[in-house]
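Key idea: predict the complex, not the pieces.
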Amino acid sequence: MDIRVLKPADIPHVQSTNITNLPENYFMKYYLYHALSWPQLSYVAVDVSRPKKTPYDPPKIVGYVLAKMEEEPVNGIQHGHITSLSVMRTHRRLGLAEKLMRQSQRAMVEMFGAQYVSLHVRMSNIAALRLYRDTLGFEVEKVESKYYADGEDAYSMKMNLNPLREQLEADEDYADEGEEVGDVGKKEKKKEDGEQGKTKRKVKLGRGLGVGELVERNESSKA
Amino acid sequence: MAPPPSPQMLGSKERSLFTQVVKNYENKQYKKGLKAADQILRRSPNHGDTIAMKALIINCQGNAEEAFALAKVALKLSMKSHVCWHVYGLLYRSAKDFEEAIKAYKSALRLEPESQQIQKDLALLQIQTRDYQGYVQSRRAILQQRTSWRQNWTALAIAQHLAGDLTNAERTLSTFEETLKGVPPKTDIEHAEAVLYKNVIIAEMGETERALEHLDAAAKNNPDRTSVMELRANHLLTLGRKEEAAKVYRMLLARNPEYRDYFEGLQSALGIEKSDVKALKNLYGDYAKQNPRGDAARRIPLDFLEGGDFREAADQYLRHMLHKGIPSTFANIKALYPDTSKRDAILELVEGYAAGEAPPVANGSAEKQPNSDKDLFKISARYFLAQHYNYHLSRDLNKAMKYIDEAIESVPESVDYHMAKARILKHYGDPKKAAEMMEEARELDLRDRYINTKAAKYHLRNNDNEAAIQIMSKFTRNEAHGGPLGDLHDMQCVWYITEDGESYLRQGKLGLALKRFVSISSIFEIWQEDQFDFHSFSLRKGPIRAYVEMVRWEDHLREHPFFSRAAISAAKIYVKLYDQPHLAHGSLINGMNGDHMDSAERKKAEKKARKEKEKQEKAEAEKKDKKAALDLNGEPKKEDKDPKGELLLQTSEPLLEAMKFITLLLEFSGRNIQAQQVGFEVFIRRKKFLLALRTLIASHALSPTDPITHEQMFRFQQSLSKLSEPLSPKAMQVINAEFNTLLPASTDLTKHNDEFLQRNHNSASHVQGYLKVRQLIDPSSKEKNQQDIIRTLALDGSSLEDAVRGLDMLEEWKAESRYKDDYLVAAHERWPEASAFKQKVD
Ligand SMILES: CC(C)(COP(=O)(O)OP(=O)(O)OC[C@H]1O[C@@H](n2cnc3c(N)ncnc32)[C@H](O)[C@@H]1OP(=O)(O)O)[C@@H](O)C(=O)NCCC(=O)NCCS
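Result:
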């Protein structure tokens, strides 16, 4: 089982995996929106040993994490969000979900200077809760009542990514890449001030771009 | 869109009203917009631009026909108005006639060369239709209007890149970079991305040396560290700078030790040959030690180790997994099975575990506790063996059943074990029992959608579409338009729609089957259309490499097996409809397809069915919810006028309908032999002999001994020899010349067929192909063929599917019932559990 970054060509199978495993489903465009906005954040687990049935068989996806950055972070604090995570039942307990999550989290920090990552999970989902809380170190932030379409409550969970950042910085010093990494976290403020005399677009990107409307509608219908 | 109005004919009040109309349109206030437009038109009834705006609004309200008529009126009145042409283009765009839309935009642009909006709309359609040259031009024009925007430079570079002009793509990116004062900070993500994009372009030019220099100079602080390292490792390896490459691959592996590409990169960087097992073993051994929770470094060596080494490593690996009770162990191992010696070694090991040769576990003797580690280990071993014996390369279903029953006895609440048992039953050929068992599994964990999905799938395999959708509905949004099935369509649930269609096809319900396959095709149209918004979105958002990758992927979207699987079935249905036109009504005859009725009987049955159908439709109409459902845009959803696919069946040109699928199949899935073969069926019926021949040549090249191709070759020969109207001498000459390479004119057909049999006499499907051909070239052999087909049942390698296909052949030949009975008895003997061969009690 390979763990690697999600590519556009993986999306049909990721979509299949999602609708096989979870009740919260999205159409293709929503996956594209993730893959083309934050291509570094979403990962897939691939069964590389599967024999091909046709010369065109795409890689067989057996798990994925679909992740994003918050579009309009409150106070400009960058943070990531897990939109969806699942692993085929035939491939569970191999450690895939954990590995997918860890790759995504590191990319959030490195690429976007994320301070924390958040997610929602059904209160009854024991497997996922153990993974998030015990294995990865998420904490329950609050309960969101009737978050899901069927009326179930959700835990809103958060994981502080600063320890991960510190660890990455330490590793990087070790690797002697000789670069400054300390300013990653300050990124957003700078952006808003506008750099180099160019006014940077605001991070308000989901909206008004054709994809945006759809995205929001979708998120509300999913939630 | 905001085309500046051309208000020369309007008074000031109307002029401001016109601005109002445009605003209303943009804000989707359609009613208001129409009202304002009508107000203008009362004064100036011939104002083309206003009429055009009205057309645009009406189109948005869903009335395309009226909109087009109005737009034409507008154009007649104001041939010189860019607004009218622009609107005309927008209407075509929304009708998805991109070619006409592009023409209209170009007319508009000629009249108003400065319009940014028209230029952009044109550009978007050009890239959507892959008119790269046109797109380069448009992007250049847009850039010239605003050179300070990085986006515009990047967009031109993308256009050049996609058009294959790598040199200028790079130059464009560099030109903008030169305008930058100083190096942008690491936090400028747009810049960071543009740098990596440029690096990819340089590498694509084959200038690896320069690519590496560029990367080292410009990407030191790039936040996309994974990409930088991957590019660097690649460049270094290409350049043969192996030591440095190895260092980078090690860094990548430290970040992600579960990616085979990295291991392979490291292997070649270290110059380890595939045959140097010792070095490989050490390499992976080190990584296994470093990553106690890792899998790859433990699993990969099983691929290259042999003999005693393999046994030892497999033993360790399996013990580790089975002690943890990991249910996916077999899924992770079965790829080794084509190697029989490995298969045997694994079997021996696990049979040993199951028999109780597990060493005592560290935390002592918990002999009697049912949930002790030791028990878990043994039970997991049995579960593994059940999967082993259920797998097609090592199948022994009775043993599989014995092991799974033991496992279930130990852990009666295990979803996984019940699921495995259902799969075994499926392989026995008893879809009904399999579905019942999968239901049991589902009931053990009602909250898990995966097992719910499996249960639904097994119901479909059992041709119980009702039960399937009922099960699916436990996880769908049932308030969606069209209920659970509507939600599955909205959510593009390809697997379900496809399996549903295949299930209907098995039942002879061609309308519903076709309906589903056509839905798959529509989903692919949506997927193709989906890229449209990203042509502009991605430029604003910045990640260009992912965008380019998306464009390239969309270019061959329809090679996806999701598409070809449905398209092949759809084309086959159309062929069936062409051969047996009465089937268009056949699905009305209560599930029977009317094959065996004479025409008077058939008419009677059809009449009866029609009546019943009318009654049913009336009832449904009355039952129907009065409220119109809303689609995802909050707009009224178009009513599906043909929910059962009956109109689809009634096409007068089934072969032309089939061509819609064949064209795409041959364009995108030419190396799929089934695509070529169904293409043949359509072409031969359309008497397109040259095209039919091309598919034959292609299939033959893909697999020279394929039994279906073998049969098609003979049918082709027969069709040519029995032409009702001769082909032109020139066509004949071409065909003869090409066909000669497959089946020379001098061939003795009978002999050729006999030789085919001799070469493949152990394979049921080949013997079937041989018999079909014998029947074709010598109809008097029917008696013999009916007898001989039974022999295929005795062949070692015969599968259940082969046997079912044999039964179908007897049907096709309209064999006497004694032959069918004999066949069924023999098949039943070999596959006693299979429901296909259980004699039906009348
Ligand atoms: C939740 C889910 C993604 C976990 O995937 P996975 O690949 O099997 O998880 P991992 O193997 O990486 O598990 C890591 C750790 O999580 C915990 N965990 C995972 N599954 C568990 C289960 N069924 N019961 C208890 N703990 C579990 C364990 O601590 C495990 O570590 P361990 O195996 O060393 O004991 C998977 O069960 C799934 O896809 N479920 C359905 C979809 C879903 O619920 N998604 C989450 C929505 S928020």
